[in-house]
Specification:
It is a single chain. By secondary structure, the protein is mostly helical. It has a domain at 17-37 and 66-83 and 145-324. Helix content is 84%, strand content 0%. It has 13 helices and no strands. It has helices at residues 2-19, 21-24, 28-47, 50-63, 67-106, 111-161, 170-195, 202-226, 231-240, 242-257, 262-282, 290-297, 305-324.
Length: 325
């Protein structure tokens, strides 16, 4: 019973930490600007060059992206353009074309013919719309989101922790990012497989647990990467402190599971994810509820171990063979 209370406490603490970004993101830009102005004043007093420092401040202000501005751009692209275009096509354009088709055939008393024509016209229109609009816009949004998410994470990290402490070599950074992408893709497949298990209720809960941990990894990975954490350390940290990270990823997992369409779910994720990046950057899971985290460090949940073993096997049989050849 005591362990259940500890799980609930850690999970609720993670939920509260995950929601902080929705409030902090509106004040971070002002605090970052205040922090920069204080640094400029300190430099002016020490160097006594107000003109040079002011010109540098203008240049810095132009180069540094604003967190709220990047968040609004993500919302506009993913929610305002991508998601609304899907709703407009399925909710307005297709019904309008169907109504016009039915109306034109009704004069001739050929309603059956109208239904037959619409049965093959609708899939053709949907396939054309998906090919010419949805797919290019989806790829564009994913490409642009990578840069915008990184800008938000870097700006938030510099404000709270200063200069990033990255991995020692470029090759190590590239290898870590590639391996992380493979692990995340395999873990997503594992989550889907868990949802297909023939066990009522339990399969949904197990799949939700996977998605919560995966979204927590997404949210914290920018911060941990800037702190120089390698992928094994990031995964072990989540597995050891799984109650907290389950609660942290729960709001985003619930909100993205509501839409029936996978594309709309992806839009919801892209709109909300910047807030969780800020939340992950400002959260302190290793100091808050310390006794709870130390308790569950003795009972890790090794959900990432199967995909890590599979990814190692894939890399050893592909890259390892090519190197030996």
């Amino acid at each position: 019973m005591e362990h259940i209370k500890d799980i609930i406490y850690a999970a609720s603490h993670g939920i509260l930490d995950s929601l902080r970004g929705f409030f902090l993101i509106f004040t971070l830009d002002r605090e970052i600007e205040l922090q920069r102005s204080l640094k400029r004043e300190h430099k002016n007093k020490s160097a006594r060059r107000p003109q040079t420092s002011s010109s540098n401040s203008v240049k810095e202000k132009q180069e540094e992206p604003r967190i709220l501005h990047r968040t609004l751009q993500c919302s506009l692209l993913n929610g305002g353009v991508f998601c609304l275009s899907i709703f407009a096509f399925n909710g307005i354009i297709l019904p309008l074309i169907e109504a016009l088709l039915t109306f034109s055939f009704s004069f001739r008393g050929q309603l059956n013919a109208a239904q037959w024509v619409w049965s093959w016209t609708s899939p053709v229109l949907s396939a054309t719309f998906s090919t010419l609009w949805i797919l290019p816009l989806f790829l564009l949004s994913k490409f642009v989101n990578c840069f915008w998410f990184q800008d938000i994470a870097d700006a938030a990290y510099k404000y709270s922790r200063g200069r990033p402490q990255l991995l020692p070599s470029v090759s190590k950074m590239i290898a870590d990012m590639l391996f992380s992408m493979v692990i995340q893709a395999l873990f997503l497949v594992q989550a889907m497989v868990m949802g297909l298990l023939p066990i009522a209720v339990f399969n949904g809960l197990l799949s939700m647990l996977h998605m919560c941990l995966l979204y927590s990894l997404y949210s914290f990975e920018y911060r941990w990467f800037n702190e120089g954490w390698e992928l094994p350390k990031r995964l072990t940290h989540i597995e050891n402190h799984w109650p907290y990270f389950f609660g942290f990823g729960l709001p985003l997992a619930i909100l993205t599971s509501m839409p029936s369409s996978t594309l709309v779910s992806g839009c919801v994720f892209s709109v909300l994810f910047p807030f969780f990046i800020v939340s992950g950057n400002e959260a302190q899971p290793t100091t808050k509820a310390k006794y709870v985290i130390n308790l569950f460090a003795n009972y890790p949940l090794r959900l990432f171990s199967p995909v890590v073993a599979l990814a190692n096997t894939i890399f050893n049989r592909t890259i390892g063979r090519s190197r030996s050849a």
